[in-house]
Amino acid sequence: MSQPSSTVTTTNNLAADLKPQGEAAAKVKPCCVCKDEKAARDECMLFSNAADPQADCQNMVQKYRACMQGYGFNLP
After folding, report:
1. Where are the transmembrane segments (predicted)?
2. Is 31 a known ligand-binding residue?
3. pTM for the whole structure
């Protein structure tokens, strides 16, 4: 009895690189973690009075990235 052969297909899913690998993938979804950090980052970016909101909110962005990395998600 032979095993069915699997074919390798390439996808253009750019988000595939962001997904966690292994055990972490089964545990959490990116939308379900770091909600407080994401809310603080978004609020800072939306309501910043600075000329450059990205520079003004860099601390919040770094906290969000660090939190996501703690769950196995690699943000660009």
Report:
1. none
2. yes
3. 0.64
48 found inside a domain: yes
Range of the domain at 64: 44-76
Distance CA 65, CA 35 (A): 12
Residue 49: inside a domain: yes
Mean pLDDT estimate for the chain: 82
Quick check: 12 pLDDT over 90? Answer: no
Number of domains in the chain: 1
Q: Binding site annotation covers 32?
A: yes
